[in-house]
Known about the structure:
single chain; alpha/beta; Rossmann fold; 38% helix
Amino acid sequence: xxxxxxxxxxxxxxxxxxxxxxxxxxxxxxxxxxxxxxxxxxxxxxxxxxxxxxxxxxxxxxxxxxxxxxxxxxxxxxxxxxxxxxxxxxxxxxxxxxxxxxxxxxxxxxxxxxxxxxxxxxxxxxxxxxxxxxxxxxxxxxxxxxxxxxxxxxxxxxxxxxxxxxxxxxxxxxxxxxxxxxxxxxxxxxxxxxxxxxxxxxxxxxxxxxxxxxxxxxxxxxxxxxxxxxxxxxxxxxxxxxxxxxxxxxxxxxxxxxxxx
Length: 261
C-alpha cells in the first residue's frame, strides 16, 4: 500500500503520517515513512532518538554528485535524470520499531525550481519507493503534490488531504484535490484534524460536500504538550490513536476489496 499525505501547513499531516506508520508497523507491516516536508518533523513525531542528527538526502552532496554526475549548486550542467537509487532505502535510512524512515529535504533551490541535481535524485527515489518497493510506503508531503508526477500517480493507492476547521485549510484542500486530479490521481480522501466539537466536524463536511472522509481526529492538548516537551507524539493521545486505527481499518479494507466487474 502506498499512501501520500498532504494539506495546508500546520494542519497535522505529520501527525497523521506518524500515527499511521506506527499503526501499520504494529499490525505487522514493514513500513517506509518518507519525510518529504522541508520542515522535517516526522522523525521527532515518531520518537526517533536524536532526530536532528538525520541528514536529509538532498544535503548529501557527495552522494548526489556520484549518482547524477553533477554537484548541487552547479549551473548549466547536464545530469542524469534516472540515477541509481535502489540501494538508498537500506543505506540512507534509520529504523525503529518496524519503521524505516527517510528524510528527503528540499527539492528546490531559490530561483531554480526542482530542475536541479538534488531534485533529480529525490524524484527518482520517490518513484522507486512508490513503484518498485513492496513495503507500506507513507509519504509525508509539503502542502501540495510536488513529489508526485504523472509517472507515479498510478502507484499511489490513496492520497489523503488533511484539513482542520478553517477556511484557508479548506481552500488549500480544494486546490490540492484539483491539482491531483489534473495529473491523474483519483483515489483521494480527506481526514479532519483538531476537531473540538460536532460543529467543527459539520463545518468541514459541509465545506467539502463531495469529499470521501476517512475519519476525524479529535483535538487533544496532550499532543501539543508532548511536542513542546520533545516527547514521542504518537504516545501522547489515546483518543487520536483510536481514531487513526479506524482510518487504518478503512484503508486496509478498501485495498482488500476486489475490483467491481
